[in-house]
User: Fold this.
Amino acid sequence: MQREIHEFANWKLGPAAEAADDLPLLAEVDVVVVGGGAAGVAAATVAAEAGRSVLLVEKYGFCGGAAVAGMSGTICGSYLASEHDKPSDRVVEGFTGRFRAELLAGGGLTAPQKYGKTYTEAHDPLVWKEAADDLLATAGARVLLHTAVVGVLLDGDRHQGVVLESNAGRSIVRARRTIDASGDGAVVARAGLGTYFGADGAIQNPTMFFRVANIDEARFLDFYGADTICPPNVSSAIEAARGDGLDLPRSHIWIFTTPRPGELLVNATRLSGQDGRMLNVIDPEDFTWAETAGRRQVREYTRFLRRHIPGCEDAYVVDTGTEAGIRQTRSIVGTETLRNDDVLACRKRSDGIVRSPWPIELHSGDRPKLHWLLDDFYEVPYATLVPARGENIIVAGRCLSAEHEALASARVTAQCFEYGHAAAVATTISLEQEIDYRSIDGTIVRKTMRDNGSLL
Assistant:
């Protein structure tokens, strides 16, 4: 049975909230962005480029979120799915295209790699960090790394800033607008606003990505093939090795080449509780189990690669993610919700702020479930980023308001960059016109994003 985790979702100000007025004031800014993943970097960069004072707060010593700390390692969601055996034109640009160009300039992005019926590109995590650093610095955004948000400042439902904690102690930041790019809806939840978990509490499994080096790429590719989704003979080999005693819970794995010669990025693990139950990494005990179990599975899958996959005989583990790869935790109760039918029907919207051609990619159980959107895409409406309650706050990233299967498509990296782009554009409008996010016409956000280079 899934353990109760609602207590973690209902914190308001957190420890020392009652004494917030006694804490030192660290900064007063137009915009505080919480989280430095794809959505947060986009939001902070675009808002700062619009002339706003911006503070980005990130708990790790680098930006990257799930792409770097979780080592998801690919920019998914840019290419149409098709029965054709070659990359189609990209259908997502805007800030996504800007960041992609930065990665290419730094030698940190592969050519498109086949992923079933679509294509993706793998990036170098160090180049990702450096690209984020450069974009934020050039835009003039202030960045605080190694800093966590432990509470929020509220006047009723109106957000007025956040409570921070670092090794220097606690302080407060007063902000006219807040962008929750935490990925977990952490700021929204701490304010006691509406959030939920997947379908009646059921969410997607986390995973532990890892990289292996000392690969003979030519021999590996000759055996494995060009598709990053493993062929049937590899799945059969995993099942046989499982019978020989290796702990390999997932038979259907994905392996990508990386920008570094002789290196592979592997997505193979399946993380669940000791009793087989679903993990929810909002709960720190579940998160701890995911980390430790994930590292054990990484060693087992590496043994499998060395023993059974040509070109991998001398492979060794370079690293795992700084944290388990998180696909889903909280979603906000939004002003509007992306529905499963919106995705299946490839519905276009006059207030759409990003295209998504990515399949419904649902990770639950032994084998991921894929539903392809062939030669088409849907658009995510602006209001899915706007909480139904609360003022002066908008979200960016995978915690947008979406039904379970819809989120399994909408959560990926190319779209997250554009959610941050949209949140920054809406924030600029909100500040300029002194209106709340719910009063903003999504078609205006869309037009501004199109003027910025988004394909809409």
